[in-house]
């Protein structure tokens, strides 16, 4: 996700982002320190918000359709689980149980909120990690594919090519060499 794609959009802030905003608001009365402190905290808040938007971990505030705020927060937890535990053997049932939703509500709500299925989000997260490993390691492509949840090279190569437009070997060969 690119932050510019969300111009004018409103989001529910996570507990951590609210805490930073409250520290900005509650800054003490010392004039010189307060201005510098507020500026630093504002930059921290902005950077954390951009990062959250890029990770897709902020929940849109506008029009949650049929979702209650509680369900939307459970779906946000499901997304966090995918982003953090992508290397695990996550199933729809496991994610649903851990987030306190049934499988149907998880599937429908996830599509409504994130415009993709749970399995698409998981596959995308794994492919992003595979791309990172192709750029930053010398691991064989087959090992990277296996670590990314693909049981054979052909399915990994096909999925990677669909996502990034080139096979993993061509992607690695075209990557700039770090000095």
UniProtKB/TrEMBL annotation:
> What is the recorded name of this protein?
Helix-turn-helix transcriptional regulator
Specify the superkingdom: Bacteria
Q: Does the keyword Transcription apply?
A: yes
Which organism is this protein's natural source? Sphingomonas rhizophila
Could you list this entry's UniProt keywords, alphabetically sorted.
DNA-binding, Transcription, Transcription regulation
A single Gene Ontology MF term assigned here is: sequence-specific DNA binding
Q: Which residues does the UniProt record annotate as the domain HTH araC/xylS-type?
A: 76-174
